[in-house]
Specification:
about 375 residues, alpha/beta, globular, ten-stranded mixed beta sheet, Rossmann fold, 20 strands, 2 domains, binds aspartic acid, 10 helices, four-stranded parallel beta sheet
């Protein structure tokens, strides 16, 4: 489907993957089933924007797999191979949107924007937030440059990195609890207030990692298993060891506080690392950085055991960083190289324009006004 408003000055490709923005009542609950064209038809087009739709998947994002995400990553790169495309909007369920956005961002080398959006209220409801989010996402995709992969939701523009789903039902579903949003969109303006921090992007993973979503049997390509294990009072190493026994090549320990667990878990981390498993330590606390403060099973001991702290990244995005590291390093990966790459992805953000960090504001509204 192709829709044009006013001569098609900016050509945006919408890639539809499902989620609440495409969900209809199924008799017992909601599930994604509306096409990308149907979703697009709910929203007005910003002036001067031409849109083409790619229906890639139609899933609730709690069912998203690495195979889906890698297929989407390749589709994004293939779409941007066309120099006539000015930007991409991806409609996606909100549940795992932060994971997909971060995987795309870690591999995004283009100045053209990739904008993820979705909805908290289902398709076709009078009070739905999908149409407004779609309009805003198109406007941002038609307006900004060199900001990496973005999340546009409820009038806010977020960097992929660090952004999490922080509301289960409310319209302002996303935030970075450790940083400010990047900007705002509304009233025909896109205002970008700061530059995102991004490590040097990774090359696309080898084609061998392009698995078929949902495939079993010969079509299924083994992707590295990466598990998240949460610590809590009474926590023991059982689940961490079970992850290793299940073949995990990477584990994110979602620790307490600034990155703390127990001496027994630190010993299990050392065993896992000695077996070549990449271990990253995040925290179940919503905001703030990990820090080496405590021994007795704390972050001091977990780091000594060979784990890496994840900065302000929370577990789901830390898991994506581990997965991306394993995909980049391939089967023959040397553990030291994997550790060095993961460290760069976890810690390596480079502030692109320091001037903007001092509170300067850059408005993209001039471009947006044209769109
Ligand atoms: N279950 C939905 C999903 O696909 C939730 C949403 O999109 O808001 O993630």
């Amino acid at each position: 489907m192709k829709r044009t408003n006013d001569g098609g000055a900016r050509r945006i490709v919408v890639i539809s993957t499902g989620g609440t923005i495409a969900s209809r009542w199924q008799g017992t609950g909601y599930a994604a089933d509306a096409s990308g064209s149907d979703v697009l038809a709910t929203a007005p087009l910003p002036e001067g924007v031409t849109v083409e739709v790619v229906d890639l998947f139609n899933v609730n994002s709690s069912r998203m797999t690495a195979a889906h995400q890698l297929t989407l990553l390749r589709t994004v790169h293939e779409t941007l191979a066309d120099p006539g495309v000015d930007g991409i909007v991806i409609t996606h369920g909100t549940d795992t949107l932060e994971e997909t956005a971060f995987l795309l961002d870690l591999h995004h080398t283009d100045v053209r924007p990739v904008v993820l959006t979705g909805a908290q209220r289902p398709f076709g409801t009078g009070d739905g937030d999908g149409p407004g989010n779609m309009y805003d996402a198109l406007q941002v995709a038609a307006s900004v440059s060199d900001l990496g992969v973005l999340v546009v939701f409820d009038g806010r523009v977020h960097a992929a990195r660090g952004t999490v789903k922080s509301q289960t039902l409310a319209a302002d579903a996303f935030s970075d609890p450790s940083a400010e949003r990047l900007g705002r969109v509304g009233f025909s303006r896109v205002d970008i207030e700061r530059q995102p921090e991004r490590p040097t992007p990774l090359p696309l993973p080898a084609a061998a990692h392009t698995a078929v979503p949902g495939a079993i049997g010969p079509d299924a390509v083994a992707l590295p298993r990466v598990d998240i294990v949460t610590h809590h009072s009474d926590g023991d190493p059982f689940l961490l060891n079970a992850a290793v026994a299940a073949g995990a090549r990477g584990i994110v320990l979602e620790a307490t506080g600034a990155g703390n667990a127990t001496p027994e878990i630190a010993a299990a981390v050392a065993d896992a690392v000695n077996q070549g498993v990449l271990v990253a330590v995040s925290t179940r606390v919503p905001a703030g950085p990990l820090a080496e403060i405590y021994t007795g099973g704390g972050a001091v001991d977990l780091v000594a055991a060979g784990a890496l702290l994840t900065g302000t990244l929370r577990a789901a995005q830390a898991r994506i960083a581990v997965l991306a590291t394993l995909l980049a390093e391939g089967g023959a990966g040397d553990p030291a190289r994997g550790t060095a790459l993961l460290r760069r992805l976890l810690e390596g953000p480079v502030r692109v324009e320091p001037a903007l960090a001092t509170g300067g504001s850059r408005s993209a509204s001039a471009v947006a006004a044209r769109a």
